[in-house]
Automatic annotation (TrEMBL):
One GO biological process term: receptor recycling
Classification via PANTHER family: PLECKSTRIN HOMOLOGY DOMAIN-CONTAINING FAMILY J MEMBER 1, SESQUIPEDALIAN
Domain of life where this protein originates: Eukaryota
UniProt-listed Pfam families: PH (PF00169)
Domain PH residue range list: 19-108
GO cellular component: cytosol; early endosome; recycling endosome; trans-Golgi network
Protein name: Pleckstrin homology domain-containing family J member 1
Database matches in CDD domains: PH_PLEKHJ1
Length: 149
């Protein structure tokens, strides 16, 4: 994926939907758990050394799996690279579950599915397509419909 480093750094400085210090293990062989500040901004999970303002890495939360591994541990792996797994150890099971839910809601795919669901619910209740009032073309609506699966 291409990205503009300056824009990514600017995004990392935005207010976070969720942030905390957790233990993190990178997918590198022999990697150990290290305390990191993790910060969720839109659909990026930035991670920082606890004493630095610039992120040392970022994960784009698209086409990924977020799995609870143990009581306080969850992992993020990517569909196209399942062996590339990042592990996160939280202070409590509750914190772990909060992170899992927040990360799953962060992807554009989740937002798209939610949009389709609510659009269909509004249409059932009113008999009108709510997108019509915004001038969204038939072609665009068709694309939304065909990608439901």
């Amino acid at each position: 994926m291409r990205y503009n480093e300056r824009e990514l750094l600017s995004l990392a400085r935005q207010p976070a939907e969720k942030a905390a210090e957790v233990l993190m293990r990178l997918p590198k062989k022999g990697s150990v758990l290290k305390k990191r500040l993790v910060k969720l901004v839109v659909n990026f999970l930035f991670y920082f050394r606890t004493d630095e303002a610039e992120p040392i890495g970022a994960l784009l939360l698209e086409q990924c799996r977020i799995i609870k591994e143990e009581e306080n541990v969850f992992s993020i792996s990517f569909v196209e690279e399942p062996e590339r797994k990042y592990c996160f150890e939280c202070d409590s099971e509750e914190q772990c579950q909060e992170w899992i839910e927040a990360l799953k809601r962060a992807s554009y795919e989740f937002m798209r599915r939610s949009l389709i669901f609510y659009r269909n619910e509004i249409q059932k209740m009113t008999g009108k397509d709510p997108l019509e009032q915004y001038g969204i073309s038939e072609e665009a609506r068709f694309q939304l419909e065909t990608r439901k699966q």
